[in-house]
Amino acid sequence: MTALAAPPTAPETGRPTQDPPGRRVRKGGAGQTMKGSWLSYLILGFALLISAFPFYWTIVAASRSNADMAKVPPSLLPGPNLIKNFEQVLEEANIGKALLNSLIVSSSITIGTVLCCTLAGFAFAKLKFRGRNALLTLTIGTMMIPPQLGVIPLFMLIAELQWVNQLQAVILPGLVSAFGVFFMRQYLVQSLPDELIEAARVDGASTARIFWSIVIPIARPGMAVLGMLTFMTAWNDFFWPIIALSSQEPTVQVALRQLGGGYVNDQSVIMAGTLLGTLPVLIVFGLLGRQIVGGIMQGAVKG
Question: Residues 18-68: pLDDT tens digits?
Fold first, then answer.
């Protein structure tokens, strides 16, 4: 016969252990915990539906005709005119060159901003030098100045340099941002231990070596977030490019204003151009999404 398993005993008294009165033993492990989370999934699904509906409506409008857009109620299903509207976009606006110009401008601004702001944020966060707090306060203070106040002096400067209607007139003013410096400084203050830098100093590493070998790997999630925000801002910028560039060298946002002209604006063509201008931003988010989520999860489990 098989002996029955004896109940667990306390090591001090040798008596069987019992659960405290009023305490229930949870059975089922993690599955029991996830069973009651249907309300969370319902709320998340509703939020996802609301967030994704404008993009879905852009696809529907871009694939319909202008007459279909005027119907009441409008159709909620995509139509057959998407390729036709794309071809009309390419005919009415120099959208191909505009996409290339926006890609060059946004990529250059993003790379320059991420590198420069990470370097400046590391200096403000971990390096000790005279006037550090004053310089940081001055940098943050520039965020309170409206950018419209600097348009005339900036245009006079690029006109003096003969950069009007050239892409560097849009790229160079946006290579560093005060928000990016402050963002990376705050991120590195929390994520980069001082002991790690001191250990690298003891091993004989220079400041440049510490930055490339230690700071950049640790700051990668923050750099991904800053890169995504910078790329979106540069891609969607309309105010300065329309001043510094002409219709022969447009960016996407400048080229989109040429669409749907006539006595009645063709909303379907405008939406098709908007869809073309939105796709690169989604691609960039897809490429950087893993780094962003990884940084969020790393901060969530850190403790």
Answer: 555 544 444 444 444 445 488 888 898 899 899 889 889 888 888 888 787
pTM here? 0.76
Q: Say how many residues make up the chain.
A: 303
Residue type at 34? M
247 CB neighbour count, 10 Å cutoff? 14
Phi, psi of 16, rounded to the nearest 5 degrees: -65, 140
Cα distance between the two ends of the chain: 52
d(CA 243, CA 275): 24
Which residues make beta-bridge pairs with 16? 9
Q: What confidence score (pLDDT) does residue 303 get?
A: 43
- What's the rounded Cα separation, in Å, for the pair 302 and 299? 5
Q: Give the integer Cα–Cα distance in Å for 136 and 150.
A: 21
